[in-house]
Specification:
The protein is mainly α. It has one domain: Na+/H+ antiporter like fold, CATH 1.20.1530. 79% of the residues lie in helices and 0% in strands. The chain is built from 14 helices and no strands. Helix 2 crosses helix 10 and helix 3 crosses helix 11. It is globular and about 55 Å long.
Length: 291
């Protein structure tokens, strides 16, 4: 089991460390590269993962429902813990509900389960992003912007991927190869970019970050096992849901907090410390997923 955990976790931490050390020394401007990855590589990866003939949307319905319930249930469990966190409800709840499923979740589940794991993690990514851009932003700002859903390329990539799968459409080989090459850029770039972002982060309130991160991890894990009790799943889907619960808070939480001025320093601390604590949380999550 230890070798399994190491083979999954160590490549993730190694690539994040490469990005961290490189950024500390060179301080590159990754804004353009990050935009290219998010706007092009991520939608392409979603499309090719969902357009695979092995993807069955009907069997994914229970997993999709479980993912939605997990996010909402985590928020309900975290609500009474707000005072213990040292942050406000608007700052704490989105960090609890929305994880870094892109830069960490995709590589983690891909390494844990191989190509078969991409469809579930894509479902998690799309559901999490839709709710984050609407519900999460709404918690912080007090209003929901639906344009964040229908203008989101991830949503359109999902729709086109599922449609392609159901219509049994086959892409020309050169198009398939091109899409695969573009999608393969995503995982290493996201991890190294995350390391670069962490290298430029500052902890304004480490105590709040530590308290919040521990409370978030407990709330999400409790929520995950409650969901699995009422929506039983096995194998890959069970493991993906548990690993999702062990991910650190999404970096996008800080961007929203900064935009709406909702305790951005405390949110930044929670995100930063959460990623540091993931050195312990993720191996523990891998162990839970495979026992």
């Amino acid at each position: 089991m230890f070798s399994k955990i190491a083979s999954i976790a160590l490549p993730i931490f190694a690539l994040v460390l490469v990005g961290f050390l490189y950024s500390r020394r060179v301080k590159p401007d990754l804004a353009g590269a990050n935009k290219l990855v998010v706007d092009v590589a991520l939608p392409v990866l979603i499309f090719i993962s969902l357009s695979a003939k092995s993807f069955d949307p009907m069997s994914a319905l229970s997993f999709t429902g479980a993912s939605i319930v997990l996010i909402f249930l985590t928020g309900l469990i975290a609500w009474p813990l707000v005072k213990l966190s040292g942050a406000t409800r608007q700052a704490f709840l989105p960090c609890a509900m929305f994880t870094n499923v892109g830069p960490i979740g995709i590589p983690l589940i891909a390494l844990a389960y191989g190509p078969e794991g991409m469809a579930p993690v894509v479902v998690l990514l799309v559901i999490s992003n839709i709710l984050h851009f609407t519900l999460g932003a709404g918690v912080m700002s007090g209003k929901v912007e639906w344009r964040m859903v229908y203008a989101n390329p991830l949503v359109w990539a999902t729709v086109l991927g599922v449609a392609s799968s159901q219509l049994r459409l086959s892409l020309p080989e050169w198009v398939q190869t091109s899409c695969t090459m573009i999608g393969s850029v995503l995982v290493p770039m996201m991890l190294m970019s995350l390391g670069a972002r962490l290298a430029g982060s500052q902890i304004a309130d480490g105590r709040v970050g530590l308290q919040s991160s521990i409370l978030i991890f407990i709330a999400r894990l409790v929520a995950a096992f409650i969901v699995l009790h009422f929506i039983p799943m096995q194998g890959l889907e069970r493991g993906a849901l548990i690993l999702f619960a062990c991910l650190p808070p999404a970096v996008f939480n800080f961007m929203l907090a900064d935009k709406f001025q909702v305790e951005p320093n405390k949110v930044a601390s929670t995100v930063f410390v959460g990623h540091l604590l993931s050195l312990a949380f993720l191996p523990f999550g891998i162990w839970l997923a495979f026992i």
